[in-house]
Amino acid sequence: MADTAVAGNVPFVWEGTDRKGKKVKGKSMASSEEAVRADLRRQGVVPSRIRKQKKGMFSGGGSITPGDIAIFSRQLATMLAAGIPLVQSFEIVGTGHENAAMQKLILAVKADVEGGSALAEALAKHPLYFDDLFINLVEAGEQAGALENLLDKIATYKEKTEALKKKIKKALTYPAAVLVVAFVVTTILLIFVIPAFEDLFQGFGADLPTFTRMVIDLSVFVRAKGWYLAILAGSGIGAFFYFKKRSRAMRHWLDRMTLRLPIIGGILQKASIARYARTLSTMFAAGVPLVEALESVAGATGNIVYEVAVLQMRDEVATGQRLQQAMENTDLFPNMVIQMIAVGEESGSLDEMSAKVADFFEEDVDNAVDNLSSLLEPMIMAILGVLVGGLVVAMYLPIFKMGSVI
Questions:
Q1: 3-class state of residue 28 by DSSP
Q2: Using one digit for the tens of pLDDT, what is the confidence trace for 127-172?
Q3: E strand or H helix at 201, and its extent?
Q4: Integer Cα distance of 334 and 214 in angstroms
Q5: Is 149 helix (H, G, I), strand (E, B) or coil?
């Protein structure tokens, strides 16, 4: 039975029996064991054993990132376009790769191809690195005799989606990193600096200003209960990521909430639309039927809210409804996007119009991230100034007060 892979989920291996009573086994990408069971039941498989897949031979010697897969796609496309045979292309790309894990992966695929397997079949044995979209496009390229063209489309798609992910990470990482630094600096001041001033103030023999008293009380509390607070915070963060990883309902709620955040939510929404349009364009240009293409598009949006919406769209399109109407029913796509898709459907150029939508929103995300960085810099400096400056002022207020009395 064919392996399945959906971006962002956890790999499971399973065994069971099909409708004919025949024993079958395979791998699935899902958010939980329950999701795997539900998917297998839909396929008519009764699972007897399901467990998370352990790290395989490619986990050693360095990790394999989506960026590595993008580079591999571009290298392979270039080799084939230059007329180099497929097996020899794998040999050149694999032996020359600096990442040992990626080298093993490429050479393992090469060995399967040498053994007579189709390239799509060989790639499907590694669902952690080659998702359904990648495999479907390679299969379409092999069947059409245009593998180098399809690999070029895959490479372009991977490069653009990875560039988009980096922009989103840039938008989220910078303010988070600065706030963490601000928290660490504030904690150090409360634990090590404020106590020195507290000892100094005890000899004043006068009442301290309210602001200073509050800061000293906060310092005493942090020193007395700091370990408990750290353990509680660590447990809370650990529990959050534990349930976030295993609960699809929680991830759905988080994705829905992040889309409602001011500024950040708009960027994430544009990024999801860009990924939707880019994936749809790539799949449709490769000749993949629309209903089948939407299956891969759903997993590539990067947001469960949009994933669920696209799967709903797939079901509606499968019953004969136009893609434009299905998109309108979700209330998640701007009118401009819907109208451009409608024009693409009517003119028979859905792939081109989807690509234009992707280009527009990718550029919009790029500009939004740059604007966000420019906006956040003064705000973050103000936050740092209030936190650190506030503590400094609180400690010097008694000295100022004593000077004015003298």
A1: strand
A2: 888 887 788 888 888 887 778 888 888 888 888 888 888 877 877 7
A3: helix 194-201
A4: 50
A5: helix
Of 123, 58, 121, 111, the closest CA to residue 87 belongs to: 111
List the one residue out of 294, 268, 274 whose CA is nearest residue 359: 274
Q: Please give the order of strands across the beta sheet that includes 46-52.
A: 23-30, 10-17, 46-52
CB 356 within 8 A of CB 378: no
Map 97-136 to HEC letters.
CCCHHHHHHHHHHHHHHHCCCCHHHHHHCCCCCCCHHHHH
SS3 state at 2:
coil
Record the tokens describing residue 280, joined without a space: 């749809």
Neighbouring C-beta atoms of residue 32, cutoff 10 Å: 16
Please, are residues 305 and 256 in contact by the beta-carbon 8 Å criterion?
yes
Asked if residues 73 and 151 have their Cβ atoms less than 8 Å apart, the reply is: yes
User: Cα–Cα distance between 13 and 5 in angstroms, integer?
Assistant: 12
Instruction: Evaluate whether 180 touches 384 at the Cβ level (below 8 Å).
Output: no
Long-range pairs for 307-316 at CB < 8 Å and ≥24 separation?
308/252, 310/276
Secondary structure of residue 259 in the 3-state scheme:
helix
- 3 state SS of 206: coil
Task: Give the CA distances from residue 377 to residues 120, 265, 266, 370, in Å, rounded to whole numbers and listed in that order.
Answer: 47, 19, 19, 11
Listed residue (345, 346, 343, 312) closest to 329, CA to CA: 312
Q: Backbone phi, then psi, for 48, in 5-degree steps?
A: -105, -20
Q: Please give the distance of CA 106 from its chain centroid, rounded to a whole number.
A: 24
Q: Which residues of 151-182 are buried (b: 16+ CB within 10 A; e: fewer)?
A: bbbbbbbbebbbebeebbeebbebbeebeeeb
SS3 288: coil
DSSP annotation of 191 reads I
Residue type at position 199: D
Q: Which run of H or of E encompasses 26? A: strand 23-30
Spatial CB neighbours of 334, under 8 Å, sequence gap ≥ 6:
273
pLDDT for 178-234, tens place per residue? 788 888 888 888 888 888 887 777 766 667 788 888 888 888 888 888 888 889 988
The answer to pTM > 0.85 is: no
